Amino acid sequence: MKKILAATLIAIIAVIMIVHHLNQRKPNPQSMLIYPRYSTTTCTRILFRDRSDTTMLIRRGTIWDVMPTRQPTPDATGHQQISELEYPADTALVEKALSMIATIQRQDLISSNPAKQAEFQVDSGSALFMECLDSAGASLGGAYIGKTAETYDSYYVRPTGSNDVYSVPGGIRFAFFANRNRWLDKSIVPFDLSSARAIKIESRDSGTIELVKTAGTPGDSGKNGEWMITAPVKVRADAKKVQFLLNSIAQFKTVSWEGNMTLTDSAMGFTRPSEKLTVSLANGVTKSLIIGGDKVAMKWIRNPDMPKITFTAYAYTMHMLDPGLAGLEERPAIPSK
Fold first, then answer.
1. Residue 1 has pLDDT above 70, yes or no
2. Do 150 and 247 belong together in one domain?
3. Over the range 239-263, which residues count as b (16 or more CB within 10 Å of their CB) and which as e?
């Protein structure tokens, strides 16, 4: 019996030693990261480079901007190319990229042969290069992202300073790109919908319509009040239709930015706009969307807060911005039979 107990004890000790040895050999998860020094607090710049495209994102406090790619050139019209401006980045795209960077890990080692880097498209000439930097300009890690790997939703990745090529899962090429325009925030006049207190629609087709949100319960300054049309008639507005209009204005996005700097305000229809929408907010600030003339199937658009920039969007997407009086006033309910 004693021999059996001794043998069992020896076996248990052996198992413990083997498990401990395997755990000792198991790599530290931190050492597996492609960007081991990265964190959302230390990273203040992200560089993307892909063949002829180069983009730099920079953090300003809690906001991320896209850096300009060229120096401003004097222009008689006072307007600027979008490539000359530091411009707000799309928040959703930046958040997706930041969360993805923190999770990129070395997975299956595919090759350590420098001669095969071109085959996996992780060489400096054909890869998407991405590097994170801190506020002092020190690198927090970089990598060359190549073509799609053999396993589903994975890509070949080579860390900077290494010849090792890994297969990395996670669809990272959907979160990273070097095309500057893809990073730009396409919102034209965003605002908090709940803070809207008045709307003015000046349309060449529908005339001028004014709406005001009345005070609701004492002390709410109109937050929970009703929307009323005050001009050209005084009638209650349909709350859902007004909310749809406000959402359409705040969420309206540009397709592109006008790059022809020789066009004058008159040529783009801003001396006599086809429509101007103005939203007055609770804090006294006004937000305006000015729709100019036609540009083939598109129209030119301006935001007075950004006077040096002209946006463009398809004309058919703007019908919801000019609902007319009939599209805003409340209709009496049809009695049921």
1. no
2. no
3. eebbeebbebbbebebeebbeeeeb
| Alpha-carbon torsion (98, 103, 106, 110), positive or negative | negative
Query: Are both 175 and 52 inside the same structural domain?
Result: yes
- The pair phi, psi for residue 40, each rounded to 5°, is -65, -20
**Which SS3 state, helix, strand or coil, does residue 270 take?**
coil
Q: How do residues 177-232 score in pLDDT, each as one tens digit?
A: 999 999 999 999 999 999 999 999 999 888 999 999 997 655 555 566 899 999 99
Q: Is-contact 176 103, C-beta < 8 A?
A: no
Write the CB contacts of 40 (distance below 8 Å, at least 6 apart in sequence): 98, 102
Q: Are residues 229 and 208 in the same domain?
A: yes
Q: What's the whole-number mean pLDDT along residues 253-268?
A: 93
The answer on 98 and 156 residing in a single domain is yes
Question: pTM of the prediction?
Answer: 0.81
pLDDT tens-digit readout, 32-61: 677 888 888 899 999 999 988 999 999 999
Could you give the CA distance from residue 297 to residue 188 in angstroms, rounded to a whole number? Answer: 19
Is residue 336 one of the residues assigned to a domain? no
Q: What is the rounded end-to-end Cα distance, in angstroms, of the chain?
A: 93
User: Which structural domain, as residue segments, surrounds residue 177?
Assistant: 32-183
Answer yes or no: is 5 within a domain.
Answer: no
